[in-house]
């Protein structure tokens, strides 16, 4: 069973697990320099950790910027991919930030664009590179219900 928890901050008892997942996915697997992956926004960001049973398997964070709420650092360990974990984390984050009623956006790696398209995000602009990885700005545009 999957469970997503919101951490109380980077000093939370679970923060070490969260940072270890990001290190494995971004630094080791994708070769993102650790100085780029772990940045000055760690303390102000809202962090999430997902468990598959009792195993930590995924992370995300969000923060408020001048442009709205930016979703960042979505990572799922390779052994846990394609099980819906990314969707569980994303839906939890979107539910938590919905009351803030602000623009929601992210920088999606090119390989993740289709995932975000399935979750009511749209591409906004051309491809650009972050950490030598192609990305697109995507904006959340939920379907309005009457």
Structure description:
The chain has a domain at about 1-100: Aminopeptidase, CATH 3.40.630. Helix content is about 25%, strand content about 35%. The protein has helices spanning about 15-30, 35, 85-95, 115, and strands at about 1-5, 45-50, 55-65, 70-75, 105-110, 120-125, 130, 135-140.
Query: Would you identify the CATH architecture of the domain at 2-99?
Result: 3-Layer(aba) Sandwich
CATH top level of the domain at 2-99 is Alpha Beta
- What distance separates the N and C termini? 33 Å
How does the overall form come out from the CA principal axes?
globular
* Strand fraction: 35-45%
Order of helices and strands: EHHEEEHEHEEE
User: Helix share of residues?
Assistant: 25-40%
Fold-level CATH name of the domain at 2-99: Aminopeptidase
**Residue ranges: pLDDT <50 for 5 or more in a row?**
none
Sheet with the most strands? Answer: 8 strands, mixed
Q: What structural class should be given to the helix and strand makeup?
A: alpha+beta
| Separate helix tally | 4
Oligomer: single chain
Q: Whole-number radius of gyration?
A: 15 Å
Tell me the CATH superfamily of the domain at 2-99: Gcn5-related N-acetyltransferase (GNAT)
The total strand number stands at 8
What's the average pLDDT? Answer: 95
């Amino acid at each position: 069973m999957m469970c997503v928890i919101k951490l109380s901050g980077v000093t939370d008892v679970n923060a070490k697990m969260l940072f270890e997942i990001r290190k494995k996915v971004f630094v080791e697997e994708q070769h993102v320099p650790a100085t780029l992956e772990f940045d000055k926004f760690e303390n102000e960001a809202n962090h999430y950790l997902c468990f598959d049973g009792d195993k930590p398997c995924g992370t995300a964070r969000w923060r408020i910027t001048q442009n709205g709420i930016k979703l960042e650092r979505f990572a799922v360990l390779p052994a846990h991919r394609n099980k819906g974990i990314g969707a569980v984390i994303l839906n939890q984050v979107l539910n938590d930030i919905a009351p803030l009623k602000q623009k929601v956006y992210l920088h999606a790696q090119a390989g993740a664009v289709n995932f975000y398209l399935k979750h009511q995000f749209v591409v906004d602009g051309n491809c650009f590179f972050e950490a030598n990885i192609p990305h697109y700005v995507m904006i959340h545009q939920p379907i309005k219900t009457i």
